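Hi, here's the filled form for the chain we discussed.

Project: internal
Contact: R.S.
Residues: 186
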Amino acid sequence: FLYQLQAQVLKQTHQITQAIAILDEALEQMDKDPELLYTQVLLFDPFKDRERLEQALNKLLEIEPNSPTFLNAYAYTLAIQNRNLDLARQYAEQALQLAPKQASILDTLGYIAFLQNDFDVAVQNLGEAYALSSTLSIGLRYAKALYVHGDIEKFSLVCQHLLQQYPDSEDVQQLQQLLITTSKVS
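And the returned structure, exactly as it came back:
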């Protein structure tokens, strides 16, 4: 607990390297503690720490192979790295079976489907995720999927909703520009 607390304080003060080092020290003594491993996973940069991140995620799944949280973390990591998307989708689908109707898992599955150009599945899962949790990141992914899928009417509604919730977001402003451009073409 103290290691996790120290790591959290270091994270909040943007001392990520030190936080990882603290957790490395803890994991030397308790190498199969899933909470410590997961805390460290959340600190790793998916591109700079790719190898260590993959090792930690594999170890988590070795310890708890049916954890929807760990399966989703691995799936999302692969998705943001845009690699091994078939395995990522398999993990996300498995996580969703274990924890249905969880926004973060639906978001991950929708994002992976989007990257695989499976826009029907992307729109369906991102729409469900957005209905459960209308966060900015889920809303942006959902709007992009709707746009690429060609559902401009729903895209417009989601853009309006995002603009109301996040009026200062540059990403939402960019979506609005896309909406304006689309309206002019029509």
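Let me know if anything looks off before we file it.
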